[in-house]
Amino acid sequence: ALLKAYSINMLLALLGYWLIRLAYHFKTQVEGFIFLLLSFVKFGILYFVFLANDSLNFGESRLLFFHLFIPYIICLVWEITVLAKILNQTAKKQA
Questions:
Q1: What does pTM read for this prediction?
Q2: What are the φ and ψ backbone dihedral angles of 33, each rounded to 5 degrees?
Q3: CA 40 distance to own-chain centroid
Q4: What integer is the mean pLDDT of 17-37?
């Protein structure tokens, strides 16, 4: 389950990075909104893949929490760092 969670998170984070870079390239100024939308989508996908799955044993909920949210938080920190760098580049170009 841990490898699956990391894989899904990384694929979604890379998709988000690509979409944010694409929006920055076309000067649409919606990078932050893309980030927010993809965060909700990623959380929804993780919920339906892992938490809505009836075959998982919820007796180990603490372990399940770490399996889901450690990869989620790692990718989220990376996405925030990338978005901050992109937005800082935008602010420097406009000044």
A1: 0.66
A2: -65, -35
A3: 8
A4: 80
